[in-house]
Design goal:
binds cobalt (II) ion; three-stranded mixed beta sheet; alpha/beta; TIM Barrel; eight-stranded parallel beta barrel; about 15% strand; binds phosphoenolpyruvate
C-alpha cells in the first residue's frame, strides 16, 4: 500500500517515565465499563499476540511525508467515515470510499500542482466518543453506543453491553479492510493511466462529474505526451495510501503498541496515523499520556474552547523536541466561530516557533439537528468554514496544509445543500449513518474544487 522502504535518518528521542500502560495512571475519558475484568484481560492478551496492521517502516515514511507537508511541499487529504461498522466491511463500500478519495486527490494534484498525501479514516475507525454515557428511551436507560469496537447500536441490554471480544473482531475487520485496500492499490487500481477504474456507477449525470471528466482527460493527455517523449514514467502507476483512526479506546491501542527489531522506541502498529479527539485531548489525561510515548506521527483535534497557552503546553508534551512531521493540529471550530477562535491559536504557535501541520476539519463544528430528528450538516456551513480557514491562515502567515473530512462513496443524503441542493426532506431518502452525517460524492468533489480555487490553483 505504501512505498515505505526508502529509509531516512529518523531521529529518535527517548521518552522518559513512559510505558504502553502508563496511561492507566491517568484519568481516561470516554472509556467503556467492562463488567468482567478477566475477560477483558484475556482479550487484550490475545490481541497483543496477533500481528500488527502496519509496519514501523510505513509509519516513519508517513512521518517524513508529513514533514514535507509542513514545509508546503505536499497537501494532506484525510477522509472517510465518521465510524466504520463491521457490517460495512464489504467490497463495494471499501472500494467506493477509495474511489472518492482518489478522485478528490486527482482534482487536488491537478489544481495544486503538488503531491497529495492520502490518509483514510479507515481500517480501525471503530470507536466513538459520546456526549453522554447513558441513553434513555421510553423510560429505559442503557449504555450509549460507542462504536463497533465496544458494543452494538440496537437498543437492548445485550447489544449495549461492552463486549471485549469486539477488540479482536475490530482488529480482524481492520485487517480485512487493509488487506483489500493494499491489494487494490498494489494491483493497479490507483493507476493514473486508468482513472476510469474510480468511476462510481451512480454519479453518471452529475454536473460535477462532467467537470471532473474534463480534468481527467487533460491529465491523460499530459501523461501520454510526457510518456511519448520520455517513456513510461515510474510513480504514475500507483499511489500511496495510509490509514488513521481516533485512538480512543486505549486498551485496544495498548495491545497493538509494539517494539520492533530495527527501530528503537514504541510504535502504535494498529494504524499509521492515530489522532486524539477533541473530547479526550486534556493535558493531564490518559490519551495525552499514551500519545506522548509512541513514535507515530500523531494528530490532535482542536476545538473552539482551547486556549493558546494550553495548546502550547500540549505541544510541549507531545512534541518536546519539535520533531518534523510529528504533530498535526486539526482545527474544528464551526463556521460561526472560526474567525474568532482560530487566529489567537495560529499566532501563539507561530510566535513560539513550533513546527506543526495545520489541517482543517470543517465537519465537526457544524453539526446540527433537524426538526425531524436527523443529525445533519449544511454544506454551505462546511464550505464557509473551509473557505474562511484558508483566508485566516493567509492573514496569519501560517499555512493550511490539509483537510480532514467525513465522506462516503455511497449515494447518501446526510448533509444538506451542495450541487443538488439537498433539503431537509431529502434526508429521508438515504440517511444511512449511525453517527455523524457524511459528504456524498458530489459534495466531496465540490470541496476539492474549492480547495484548489482557494489555494490559487486552477480548477
Ligand atoms: C470525529 O472525528 O469523528 C470526532 C468525534 O471529532 P472531534 O473529536 O473533532 O469531535
Ligand atoms: Co464524526
Amino acid at each position: 500500500m505504501v512505498r515505505a522502504m526508502s529509509t531516512f535518518a529518523a531521529p529518535f528521542h527517548e521518552v522518559h517515565n513512559w510505558a504502553p500502560d502508563s496511561w492507566q495512571q491517568r484519568e481516561a475519558l470516554q472509556q467503556p465499563h467492562y463488567e468482567d475484568a478477566q475477560e477483558l484481560a484475556r482479550c487484550t492478551g490475545q490481541l497483543a499476540t496477533l500481528p500488527p496492521l502496519v509496519t514501523s517502516w510505513e509509519v516513519l515514511a508517513l512521518k517524513q511525508a508529513l514533514a514535507e507537508a509542513q514545509e508546503g511541499q505536499r497537501f494532506l487529504l484525510q477522509g472517510g467515515d465518521c465510524a466504520e461498522s463491521f457490517a460495512d466491511c464489504t467490497s463495494p463500500i471499501i472500494s467506493n470510499r477509495l474511489k472518492v478519495l482518489l478522485q478528490m486527490s486527482l482534482v487536488l494534484v491537478h489544481g495544486l500542482k503538488k503531491p497529495v498525501l492520502r490518509v483514510g479514516r479507515f481500517a480501525g475507525q471503530y470507536a466513538k466518543p459520546r456526549s453522554a454515557d447513558m441513553e434513555t428511551r421510553d423510560g429505559v436507560t442503557l449504555p450509549s453506543f460507542r462504536g463497533d469496537l465496544v458494543n452494538a447500536p440496537a437498543f437492548t441490554a445485550e447489544a449495549r453491553r461492552a463486549d471485549p471480544q469486539r477488540l479482536i473482531q475490530a482488529h480482524a475487520h481492520s485487517a480485512l479492510t487493509m488487506n483489500f485496500v493494499r491489494a487494490l492499490i498494489d494491483g493497479g487500481f490507483a493507476d493514473l493511466h486508468h482513472p476510469e477504474y474510480w468511476d462510481l456507477a451512480w454519479v453518471e449525470h452529475s454536473p460535477l462529474a462532467a467537470e471532473y471528466r474534463r480534468m481527467v482527460a487533460g491529465i491523460g493527455d499530459s501523461l501520454r505526451f510526457m510518456e511519448t517523449l520520455a517513456g513510461p514514467i515510474a510513480g504514475f502507476s500507483r499511489v500511496d495510501f495510509f490509514t488513521s483512526h481516533e485512538a480512543l479506546l486505549l486498551h485496544y491501542e495498548q495491545a497493538l503498541t509494539r517494539q520492533v527489531p530495527r527501530h528503537p522506541g514504541w510504535f502504535n502498529l494498529s494504524t499509521h496515523f492515530p489522532w486524539i479527539g477533541m473530547r479526550t485531548a486534556a493535558l493531564g489525561g490518559a490519551h495525552t499520556e499514551y500519545f506522548r510515548g509512541i513514535r507515530n506521527p500523531i494528530a490532535v483535534k482542536v476545538g473552539p474552547s482551547v486556549k493558546p497557552d494550553d495548546l502550547l503546553r500540549l505541544i510541549d508534551v507531545l512534541n518536546p523536541e519539535d520533531e518534523p512531521g510529528r504533530l498535526t493540529l486539526i482545527h474544528r471550530m464551526g463556521h460561526a466561530q472560526i474567525a474568532s477562535a482560530l487566529p489567537p491559536l495560529l499566532q501563539a504557535v507561530r510566535q513560539a516557533g513550533r513546527r506543526v501541520l495545520w489541517v482543517a476539519d470543517p465537519m465537526h463544528g457544524n453539526t446540527e439537528s433537524t426538526s425531524n430528528g436527523y443529525k445533519t450538516r449544511r454544506f454551505d456551513n462546511i464550505r464557509s468554514e473551509l473557505d474562511q480557514a484558508f483566508d485566516i491562515h493567509a492573514v496569519a502567515g501560517t499555512r493550511l496544509g490539509g483537510v480532514h473530512l467525513e465522506l462516503t462513496g455511497e449515494d447518501v443524503t446526510e448533509c444538506m445543500g451542495g450541487a443538488r441542493d439537498l433539503s431537509e426532506t431529502d434526508l429521508d431518502r438515504a440517511y444511512k449513518s449511525t453517527v455523524d452525517p457524511r459528504l456524498n460524492y458530489e459534495q466531496s468533489l465540490e470541496l476539492a474544487m474549492l480547495i484548489v480555487r482557494k489555494s490559487g490553483g486552477m480548477a
